[in-house]
Amino acid sequence: MHKDQTTPLDDKVKKGVTKLVITVFAMFAFGFALVPLYDVFCDITGLNGKTATVASTKNADGIDTSRTIKVQFISRTAQGAAWQFAPQMNSIEVHPGEMKFIKFYAKNESGRSGVAQAVPSVSPGLAANYFQKIECFCFNQQPLQANEEAWLPLQFYVDPELPAHFTELTLSYTLYDITDSVETNQETE
Fold it and tell me: Are residues 152 and 61 located together in one domain of the fold?
């Protein structure tokens, strides 16, 4: 057999390897596409309780004193983050349209300067569009020196347009230590 000749088995192996390589690249591309696709899906359906990442600029149309909404606050730190993070209070009663102000406590216990970023979520997810943050520590990164502590502000209201069947909302924050990624970004600039 000459070196130029291939057997049917060689052709099958080449086709199999080609298909496998194409599949791997397609899966890799799909993995990158998932994040924007997921964001679009959440925007369309209102699922996952993603809240706005910028301050609300619309004003409440007035305070609806005929009903009360219980807003619970949950905080947690991501795995590996050496930070304390907790709400000033676990829950608060609000009338839709009523402006409220609370604080979250944060302390960097890592032993070095660090930067944290809080990511919010509202539950039930369909109510997230009605939870309006005017001022939120989650809009910005939070740099703290080693063992430094801070009270982080949150000013919000629940939109009076919130459907009546919602009587309780949960605002959850996860605090991530993003020190390494911030340092990497500063080195590449």
Answer: yes
